[in-house]
């Protein structure tokens, strides 16, 4: 898994690629938490390059979502691929996370 | 994956890289369709991480054995430990309907396993420990 962070207006975009599993999910959660700790609570996760997630990845996303919302922000996801979408759906995450077809739509949803 | 591939490691977080690497290599060699490969990978990872996290008392790890076998119409995943008796088929399902602040962080592993494979079996091992067997049916014509 690889991730990179960039600012798009007042939104922090975290681009993720590869497998989010028991080996890599902690590092993704740390990346997100560092942003929230720095005050960046409007987060977009670009999952366009993520082909796999296990429950470890779901934990990282839910922990980030809670942290961001508790501080008045949100974590929104963009470009979720079908196999990963299915895991989100099986876990009931599609009803609590806001999903967008692409990064542009996710960023704009914050009013950026 | 012919006839069966197997790996045994200490049930510690540091072993996860070996276990997942074995999974990826074995699945890649089994010529599975993408969905079956994804589901077998997911279910096997969840069972292995559960053994690493919960099968043994803190500070006293024992082995975890992961075995994959491709049969004509199914993939069989077997995970064995020598640890605390635990029957995952009785694990409670997580509450999936609540609002975001009510969701528990964790507890989704066994739920996903049950959803992505066709059968989950558990049997205690006579010498102590657990054997979990997962059956994933292959799509017709593969």
- The CATH homologous superfamily of chain B is called Histidine kinase-like ATPase, C-terminal domain
Order of secondary-structure elements of chain A: EEHEHEHEH
Q: Which runs of chain A of at least 5 residues are low in confidence (pLDDT < 50)?
A: none
Give the distance, in angstroms, between the N- and C-terminal Cα atoms of chain A.
28 Å
**Count of folded domains of chain A:** 1
What is the strand content of chain A? 25-35%
The structure class of chain B reads alpha+beta
In terms of quaternary structure, the protein is heterodimer
How would you describe what is shown here?
The complex is a heterodimer of chains A (112) and B (142). Chain A has four helices and five strands; from the N terminus they run ββαβαβαβα. Chain A has helices at residues 25-37, 55-70, 82-90, 103-108, and strands spanning 2-8, 11-20, 42-53, 74-78, 98-100. Chain A starts with a strand and ends with a helix. The mean pLDDT of chain A is 97. Chain B has three helices and five strands. In chain B, helix 1 runs antiparallel to helix 2 and helix 2 runs antiparallel to helix 3 (109-116). The longest helix of chain B is centred in the N-terminal third of the chain and has 21 residues, at 34-54. Chain B is globular and about 40 Å long. The mean pLDDT of chain B is 92. The chains are: A alpha/beta (112), B alpha+beta (142). The A-B interface holds A 21-23, 52, 54-56, 58-59, 62-63, 65-66, 69, 83, 87, 90-92, 95-96 and B 16-17, 20, 34-35, 38, 41-42, 45-46, 48-49, 96-97, 99-101, 103, 105-106, 108-109, 111-112, 115-116.
């Amino acid at each position: 898994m690889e991730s990179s962070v960039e600012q798009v207006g007042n939104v922090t975009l975290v681009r993720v690629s590869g497998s989010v599993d028991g080996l890599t999910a902690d590092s993704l959660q740390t990346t997100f938490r560092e942003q929230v700790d720095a005050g960046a609570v409007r987060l977009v996760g670009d999952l366009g390059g993520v082909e796999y997630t296990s429950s470890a990845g779901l934990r990282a996303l839910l922990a980030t979502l809670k942290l961001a919302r508790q501080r008045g922000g949100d974590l929104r996801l963009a470009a979720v691929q079908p196999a990963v979408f299915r895991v989100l759906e099986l876990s009931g995450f599609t009803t609590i996370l806001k999903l967008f077809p692409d990064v542009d739509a996710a960023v704009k949803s914050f009013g950026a | 994956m012919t006839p069966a591939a197997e790996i045994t490691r200490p049930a510690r977080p540091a072993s996860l890289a070996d276990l997942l690497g074995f999974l990826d290599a074995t699945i890649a060699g089994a010529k599975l369709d993408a969905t079956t490969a994804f589901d077998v990978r997911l279910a096997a990872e969840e069972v292995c991480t559960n053994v690493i996290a919960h099968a043994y008392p803190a500070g006293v790890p024992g082995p975890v054995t992961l075995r994959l076998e491709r049969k004509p119409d199914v993939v069989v995943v077997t995970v064995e430990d020598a640890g605390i008796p635990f029957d995952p088929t009785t694990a409670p399902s997580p509450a999936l309907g609540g609002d975001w602040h009510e969701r528990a962080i964790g507890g989704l592993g066994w739920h996903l396993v049950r959803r992505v494979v066709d059968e989950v079996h558990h049997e205690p091992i006579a010498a102590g420990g657990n054997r979990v067997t997962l059956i994933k049916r292959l799509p017709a014509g593969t």
